[in-house]
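Intended use. Records like the one below are meant for learning the mapping from a protein sequence to its folded structure. Do not use them to infer anything beyond what is encoded.
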Amino acid sequence: VTCHGESGKGDGMAAAGLNPKPRDYGDKAWQASAKDEDIGKAIVEGGPAIGKSPLMPPNPDLKDKPDVVKALVAKVRSFGK
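Structure written out for the chain above:
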């Protein structure tokens, strides 16, 4: 929420100070091109794990919680509907 915002538009309160800006999860083209596996990997390992911004931090505590990661991927997907 801090970066991507409550609506997933990339407009969270920390977004103003970030370069590059957080992704807008409502972007239909991005939603069509992104793979669930890559979204999950970015959530757990951070942006650099999939060739994206190092500003996307890792969440290694989720490595052994596949159901939580799956739910977070579903949340990201929900912004594209």
